[in-house]
Design goal:
The structure is a homodimer. Chain A is of the alpha/beta class. Chain A folds into two domains: 2-224 and 387-408, 3-Layer(aba) Sandwich (Aldehyde Dehydrogenase, Chain A, domain 1); 228-371, Aldehyde Dehydrogenase, Chain A, domain 2, CATH 3.40.309. In chain A, 44% of the residues lie in helices and 20% in strands. Chain A has helices at 2-19, 24-40, 42-59, 63-69, 73-88, 127-138, 152-168, 185-190, 206-215, 238-250, 266-282, 291-296, 305-309, 325-335, 348-357; strands at 98-101, 107-114, 117-122, 142-146, 176-178, 199-203, 228-232, 259-265, 286-289, 301-302, 316-322, 340-344, 362-367, 384-386, 394-396, 402-413. In chain A, the strands form four sheets. In chain A, strands 10-9-11-8-7-12-13 form a seven-stranded parallel beta sheet. In chain A, a hairpin with a 5-residue loop joins strand 1 (98-101) and strand 2 (107-114). Chains A and B meet through helix 9, helix 10, helix 15, strand 13 and strand 16 of A and helix 9, helix 10, helix 15, strand 13 and helix 16 of B.
């Protein structure tokens, strides 16, 4: 298997060199052809997907996981329209807004280039196969795709359809490499392919991401954990506060930008926390509160130290009453994962202080943490949400899949 | 020792949180105070440096290494003026040129932030202690410094002087952490401090860099290897060609942007390669040539496959005659390390083709590869030259030591 993966990575690297020089139009034509191919082969995809669903039911996958795995005509159409959307985005390659004169009059231009070969390691959802390939190709990269074993039949057929149509439409042979092995060793091999794979992006559960971050010698963009907070300041507008908390917690509890801890200023809590707690509980949210919270809200469990640290990804919310915006910021500094943090306030100074002092990818004033997303940010697409500070931070669109190069024009300069 | 390092990293992280919020003026005042402190303690530094020199002589370090290690008044003054130079640079923090409206009218602003804690692992030159600290602090980071054992006395006294003066001038306690252990295990510990160290930058020999890239779970910026080429096109202006080759090879052969292989178009070679070879040999350069080269230049060794791959870092140059610009580009693709590549030509189309098709951090037309350097590029300083494609590529100035964050202003937006 190792030899097979190395061959695939070499093929990807060779393809990447040609991908980097393609015209925008060629890339877009291919993306549109890939979209059509998905639509045209929908029944074939659904029948392969049924094999995964069957196996999943046998293995006792949860209903939520089965739902993520399931493909139907609508979902295939939605993957196809994702491809068309990426085709419509501006080509991120060859751009730059920096040109200057360096030593001795050399002219230096910084332009964006593809990264090369992007390795995606992901779980469950078959649509990642399409999304990741589309974004990588649009940014002039080749891509190596390693999906989860639960979706192996779906991913295999999808990858085969899109790579065939991509090549027929003019992309270089080998630009989409799908790893058919479901062996976990395959990930280990990918993590050591320095010189062939330029970056690995793991998307999935915390265990997968941790394993890749800890063991890869290929550079990694870490995605994932979001222990996100909403802080309701003393001056928060109560109706807005309730809406933002409810949305952050209940809109889609299983995702990384969901709100996990509610911090409430004591002056606001006295009057409004009871109502907000009732509204949350009416939505089925289990609350775990500090002592002060429990004095204001009946019949909730006490929050333990571990509650402040937990990304529940579920209808559970930790609640803490604080004495000041400073205490809220300090709590976030201690327990947050630098993903998405929000303050609800009408106080200008507190809004500014919170945005300046909280160190996170996205820091909100008076909006839901759920907006941390490439589509909501207007990037037109998203390959993941980076939780590290190098290369990319927060939602990653096409730009995160590019590198740079310096082109220097001289007329015979040598250094003294 | 592990416990000690963890304590230092925690102290650095705490300091980093305060560093991020400092005013530009505070940082600059501290940098100037650090410069003065170095000047004022020059004799103390020189006497500690003498201990390293003595030990180095005992260990039989080469004259070149001893020279790199040696400090005198001039070199200390030069470190101090480096600090003053960094003080004069524009603060890279809090900047951004992107503000836009996202979904539902949220306003998104992207601004630059510090990275957090930067770990530098370096060898030999004591001036890196000062340069790295200055750049990291200016960009609002804390820094952990792990220098080589040969310079331990020099680095220890320098780090102690600059950190004391930095704190006295208003920087947070702990913002410069110097690792006094000369145990190689210290590097291994640093490589696993995820969550405390945000990035590691190794600077030194290929072995050190490879070990860090392969074993670190903390994100790494790879620096180093440059197997750089100069290609003399058929239309190259002969005098310019000779100057650029001589400069690339002999100006400072031991550095990563030195020229290691000369590629020569066959039409140019026939008339001019003999002269250029004579000029190189007159400068003491040993040539290793392909067969066609040896037919044109007398008494040189044949180049083996390994010569095309080697970064000599010495007065040795591999020489190959090629049939076309395409063959030159293909050779560079195969053997280059994507550092610095140059073409000398008067042909517009070949110049453009070379710059587009060669994938390297810096691609030159009619200038020496030696310009790949933060100072020559006008960055005012340099923390290293990245040879990877993530986060930073090529010479790294202050901007490479920053991350970003998104600040979002809403008025109650929630996602539907």
């Amino acid at each position: 298997m190792q030899e097979q993966l190395i061959q695939q990575a070499k093929a990807a690297k060779a393809a990447a060199q040609r991908m980097a020089l393609l015209k925008t139009n060629t890339k877009n034509t291919a993306l549109l052809a890939m979209a059509d191919a998905l639509t045209n082969h929908a029944s074939q995809i659904i029948s392969e997907n049924e094999k995964d669903m069957e196996a999943g039911r046998h293995q006792g996958l949860s209903l939520a996981l089965l739902d993520r795995l399931m493909l139907n005509d609508d979902r295939i159409e939605s993957m196809a329209s994702g491809l068309r959307q990426v085709a419509s985005l501006k080509d991120p390659i060859g751009e730059g807004n920096k040109v200057w004169i360096g030593a001795d009059g050399i002219q230096i231009t910084q332009i964006s280039t593809p990264i090369g070969v992007v390795g995606m390691i992901y779980e469950a959802r078959p649509n990642v196969t399409v999304d990741a390939a589309a974004l990588c190709l649009k940014a002039g990269n080749a891509v190596m795709l390693k999906g989860g074993s639960e979706a192996i039949h779906s991913n295999t057929i999808i990858a085969s359809i899109i790579s065939r149509s991509a090549v027929e439409a003019g992309l270089p042979e080998g630009c989409i490499q799908f790893i058919t092995s479901t062996d976990r060793e395959a990930v280990k091999v990918m993590m050591k392919l320095n010189g062939l794979i330029d970056v690995l992006i793991p998307r999935g559960g915390a265990g997968l991401i941790k394993a890749v971050v800890e063991n890869s010698s290929v550079p990694v963009i870490e995605t994932g954990v979001g222990n996100c907070h909403v802080y309701l300041d003393a001056s928060a507008e109560p109706v807005m506060a309730e809406k933002i908390v409810i949305n952050g917690k209940t809109h889609r509890p299983g995702v990384c930008n969901a709100t996990e801890t509610l911090l409430v200023h004591k002056d606001f809590a006295g009057q409004h926390l009871g109502n907000i707690a009732d509204a949350l509980m009416a939505k089925g949210v289990e609350l775990r509160g500090c002592e002060k919270t429990r004095a204001l809200v009946n019949n909730i469990l006490p929050a333990k130290e571990s509650d402040w640290e937990t990304e529940y990804l579920d209808l559970v919310l930790a609640v803490k009453v604080v004495n000041s915006v400073e205490e809220a910021i300090e709590h976030i500094r201690r327990y947050g994962t630098q993903h998405s943090e929000a303050i609800v306030t009408e106080n200008y100074s507190h809004a500014r202080q919170f945005q300046r002092e909280v160190d996170a990818a996205a820091v909100y004033v008076n909006a839901s943490t759920r907006y941390t997303d490439g589509h909501q940010f207007g990037f037109g697409a998203e390959i993941g949400i980076s939780t590290q500070k190098l290369h990319a931070r927060g939602p990653m669109g096409l730009e995160a899949l590019t590198s740079i190069k310096y082109m220097i024009q001289g007329n015979g300069q040598i250094r003294n």
